[in-house]
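Issue 218. Parser rejects a valid record. Input:
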Amino acid sequence: MRRIILPIFLLLQVPLLAQTAPLWKAGAVDVDITPDYPVRLSGYGSRTAETAKVAQRLHANALALQWKDDAPAVIVSVDNCGVPASVRAEVLKRLATGGRIIADERFALHSTHTHCAPMLKGALPFLFGEDLAADQAKHIERYTEELTAHIVSIIGQSLDKMVPARLEWSVGRAYFAFNRRLKTDAGFQNTQNFSGPSDRALPVLCVRSADGKKLIATHASYACHCTTLGIDEIHGDWAGLAHEELELRFPDSVCLIAIGCGADQNPYPRKESRFAVNHGVSIAKEIVRLINGPMQPLNGPLNCGQREVMLPFDKLPTVEEWKAKAADSNKWTAYHARQHLAMLERGEKISPALPYTVQVWNYGNDLLTINLPGEVVVDYSLRFKNEFDPARTWVNSYTNDVPCYIPSQRVWEEGGYEGAGAMIYYGRPTRFAPGIEGIISGTVKQLVPQDFITRRMQNPAAPLAGAIK
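Output the parser choked on:
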């Protein structure tokens, strides 16, 4: 693939940075997680076989942060369609067993949601509408175990590499994301909607050494599906290419890419490798532009909180309704129904609600980061920025778990794939009941410190340094 060279150099404002002693410590590590054996790829249910073709290497990245003598916090990004909560829990368990205790609320695990990465055990279990062959299932289990071990390893290494550091952040923009829900006479179609809601902000966290001479890590997030490509080959898509470009330019640093509330946002144009390259390079160039300009210093402490809530499903189908669905001509509908019928026959209860963990971090009063599991639609990001302060609020989805789509009330009422249809592939019994947006937003409000809200009230028009007006 043709490489695009970014004609930009890192400018370091050493005199400014050297005025105060750093109170942060940070360490970052990158690891190649590309399998060397055939495996089924996740993301698209139309695929029918394993692949061993590698169009781009996949990576996992870890960034450990510590303010003064507080407990460390860890951010991990993984080139995968969705890392399930079960893998995250196993990572924390193994770390604790090895004496590396990371508090649950101080661990943020981001999936880039590329649709060209290996399937993981426990994620999108009904994607293919059929049981996997035994050898294919074995390869998925093997890769899931290897990925778990890789994440444990890079977290430990990042903790060991922590050195005095300085944190800054700023917000730029990228323009290839567009709303993909277009209303037609036949319902909502998955196609470019120029007038639909979107969030093109590109928040960037920059981690430098104490003297400002070394770039330790960059961490960025963009609200867009990582689905430029539909090839049956391993590839990180635009997020993987952005990561690759940044680390080519700054080989001693680590770049972590996360996804914002992009469940109803697609990259355009798409379907060709050159478009994926262009999108990835546009992200990388904007990150470089920001870190070369004035950024907002981040002070501590880093406070981390989270809370589990239950998101209720709509009325569950009856046995007779499950049987009718099991006879459907659509293989995914039929498989989904047969699996639930089998659960009932075994005496298992179909859960009436989904456990959902909301995570909120705040860097003093300088930055609020909201981490949401699942494929979250853009309405949530726009809502939280408006409620808490668009100049200091950063919202991620696909974080800590990817259990299904998370529609807003608007999208739930409109219906369509994001509002209901996708639940089949995730193995959920039916769509959510109305009102889950209120449950999630109410939980976020409970976790946001009052001091953060008070600062906005005292200074409502304060701009963010380096932000595009």
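Fixed in the parser; the record now loads. The chain has two domains: 16-301, 305-375+417-458.
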